[in-house]
């Protein structure tokens, strides 16, 4: 990897829009997912992980290394593997559905220290941007359903936080999608129109096609258009911790620093399955794989179907010229040529530190490097990857009004960056349902870098299926369902399809 000062990628050097007559330009996955080798996987990295801003804020919270009992129970009804937002919400729904059943949650490291504890803190429902790509992959009806589900998920998350008064820095406001290039703006406009013509709901989206007006609204100098709709930002660890604390009060057994290594037949113990860990075995009837990026490490059927990929997030303290009453007031998706994206979370309701995630142009070089070093595909110890940080720096200095001439004193500007592992789904959408051929083993994973806009409905949906309710009861898009046919099709595919990542 390059150090700062060596040839870093420049936004301006990224070749122009690749496929101007298709939806590809806004498909970040196409940008970030090229040449992805299939089949790589691994268990969560032990030791040397970077600390996200969210994890840094909670170092004295005893939930991080909580173990409800000193030893693992030998037998329970259900083992849930993973304590991210998926495992935590599945646990909640499980406890509400079957209060009498006992549940163990296994977490390989600290509580919620996977992608949920490391993301960019954006819950941004896609409301138009990937419509054409989803339509191409799954047909119009499913494409509309996916976007509707994202909005339902956002509403469910906000309602939970507000009703339960969760202290997690929730912000609700206008998120802005801003194309930074005329070609991108042209294709965005076509895509938006295509979605409208298909009957998609757009009356909640404020659209400005006038570049001067867009620059004024967004405060981005070269904005070519601006699309605004409601979304949220939040502290994801604190939200997940709030839900897990309620689960603990209801009797769940949480076991951190406990890696589940395999799941095998439990017939000789009078149960369906044995979950083997480094600290002993647990016999159970039900297993939930809430392991997202790491799913294939335990379940070989998922190799090439869910693939881990490191992603970066930068924390930046804005200069005084963009602080106080002049602080950034919106979250963003800045749409770059060739499908790159800056996802920006300015933490407007709390400390104003600005998080830059997404698939920025420098991410591609990290991807190439990981492709050459597949053993590092689950490495969330990356920090200060200058190719990525440099692109953010160039963007804020050149584009954000008020930043260009800012004189930065100590404590302002680029603080640091961390990494997390996203779980790419081979067809771009999550897997929700029973693992084919493994009755009693369930999965909700493969959130494709966009889980905050999916999991609040996908996780409770999974528990409905576990309760023998039909797929329709989940309200989820049909294409999220784990079926033998889907799994088989993806296992023989030579390249993953290219659908959305945000
Ligand atoms: C840098 C970055 C930025 C992102 N930004 C956003 C964003 O702004 N908006 C958005 O919507 N999404 C974003 N995402 C994606 C989002 O964070 C994920 O989709 C979501 O958090 C997935 O939640 P999860 O609970 O399924 O997985 P995770 O949070 O990864 O939880 C899985 C857990 O399982 C544990 N585990 C795995 N294997 C085992 C095992 N064998 N034994 C025991 N435990 C195990 C892991 O340690 C982990 O804690 C981002 C991701 C990253 C990495």
What does the model show?
The chain is an alpha/beta fold. The protein has two domains: 11-41 and 121-140 and 171-233 and 306-425, D-Amino Acid Oxidase, Chain A, domain 2 (2-Layer Sandwich); 70-117 and 237-305 and 427-480, FAD/NAD(P)-binding domain (3-Layer(bba) Sandwich). Helix content is 28%, strand content 20%. The strands form three sheets. Strands 3, 4, 5, 6, 12, 13, 14, 15 and 16 form a nine-stranded mixed β-sheet that branches. Strands 7-2-1-11-18-17 form a six-stranded mixed β-sheet, covered by helices on one side. Residues 1-32 have low confidence and may be disordered.
Task: Provide a brief overview of the structure.
This is DAO-domain-containing protein. This protein has 502 residues and is an alpha/beta fold.
Alpha-carbon distance between the termini?
Answer: 24 Å
Percent of residues in helices: 25-40%
Largest sheet: 9 strands, mixed
CATH architecture descriptor name of the largest domain: 2-Layer Sandwich
Strand content: 15-25%
Q: Quick one: how many beta strands?
A: 18
User: Structural class of the secondary elements?
Assistant: alpha/beta
Categorize the overall geometry: globular
Q: What is the assigned CATH homologous superfamily of the largest domain?
A: D-Amino Acid Oxidase, subunit A, domain 2
Q: Counting H and I runs of at least 4 residues, what is the number of helices?
A: 13
Protein name: DAO-domain-containing protein
Organism: Melanomma pulvis-pyrius CBS 109.77
Domain FAD dependent oxidoreductase: 77-453
Pfam families: DAO
